[in-house]
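Q: I'm a student working through a structural biology exercise. My instructor gave each of us a protein and asked us to get a predicted structure, then write a short paragraph describing it. Mine is Maf-like protein. I'm not confident about reading structure output yet, so if you can add a plain explanation after the tokens, that would really help. Here is the sequence I was given:
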Amino acid sequence: MLGLNAELCPSTFEENLDRTEFKTFSDYIEATALGKAEEVYQRLSSDGNGDGRQLIVIAADTMVTLGNEIFGKPKDADDAVRMLTKLSGACNRVFTGVVLKHSNGVRQFTDTADVYFGQLTEEQIRSYVDSGDPLDKAGSYGVNGPGGALIPRIDGDFYCVMGLPLHRLCCELNKLFLEDL
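A: Happy to help. First, here is the predicted structure for Maf-like protein. I'll explain a few features afterward.
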């Protein structure tokens, strides 16, 4: 749609920023996404990306909150069970921060979505955790796999919950092409 040739380049940025140093959840996840973007941009730029194409690095970070409690990726299966037990029957908010790093600067934004969990039994939680699906995801769940069956409602962009708010990203890329490049 946008005519991009995309390549997946995982970042080696250490995701260990001190959350207490940031005023808002958005500031924190945008800073983490920026760290990822800058690391990849530096690596790709130094690898001699001199084929005449514009290098644009898109990086994102996602976190889940329930009230003032932050749910990152679970440390282990027990941590995933703990998170899902708290999320059961509740509405949590997903924050996804996105950074577009290019030769003329940086664009960044945060998108949010509210995710409503059904009332989960201990057996449902344990079965889902045992599937392995939630162990690498913020909040210990994913909406695009078996975890989607636990969620009756999402208010906001489904893709924000997946970790990359596609509509907003495309709008920002269009602006980038028109204004900055």
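A: Here are two points you could use in your paragraph. The chain has one domain: 22-179. The longest helix spans residues 25-46. It's a good idea to check both against the output above yourself.
Q: Great, thank you!
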